[in-house]
TrEMBL record:
The keyword Membrane applies. It comes from Nereida ignava. Keywords: Membrane, Transmembrane, Transmembrane helix. The chain crosses the membrane at residues 7-26, 48-68, 75-93, 113-135. This is Uncharacterized protein.
Length: 136
């Protein structure tokens, strides 16, 4: 597994987004009510939280398969996730600085900003340093 990824550092760069995606997928799909309460977004957001969880879980499963097999040729998935995490970071910053964040009961935490920034940094690393593997 380590060899297919090009070493332990590259493996870890894929493992961290895998674990993050699996965690948030589980959180959004299985612990939906707790997530909604923690984030203070209201019960009307349940469907969107579950849609987001379905995406996160699918990404986590796909990354887990890549870790168990090989990241060779998986550049499209990593490119998509790089773009997604950049958009996620921009939207998270914009939302945290919007009128929405000032509504009573809304918990506009920095969690989405931190999560998306970590995801973006790791995906930039993957795209830049693993190009000989992922484009193969």
């Amino acid at each position: 597994m380590f060899q297919a990824a090009g070493g332990a550092l590259n493996f870890t760069a894929i493992l961290i987004p895998t674990l993050m995606a699996l965690y948030y997928g589980f959180r959004c799909l299985v612990q939906t009510d707790k997530a909604i309460a923690q984030w203070g977004i209201g019960p009307a957001a349940e469907q969107m939280v579950k849609v987001t969880g379905a995406y996160a879980l699918a990404q986590g499963i796909m990354y887990a398969v890549i870790l168990l097999t090989s990241p060779a040729g998986a550049w499209e998935l990593f490119a998509f996730s790089t773009i997604w995490s950049a958009v996620f970071l921009y939207i998270s910053i914009q939302t945290n600085n919007s009128e929405w964040s000032k509504i009573e009961g809304v918990n506009a935490s920095n969690e989405p900003i931190i999560v998306s920034a970590v995801m973006l940094a790791l995906h930039i690393y993957i795209m830049a340093t693993m190009s000989d593997i992922i484009y193969g």
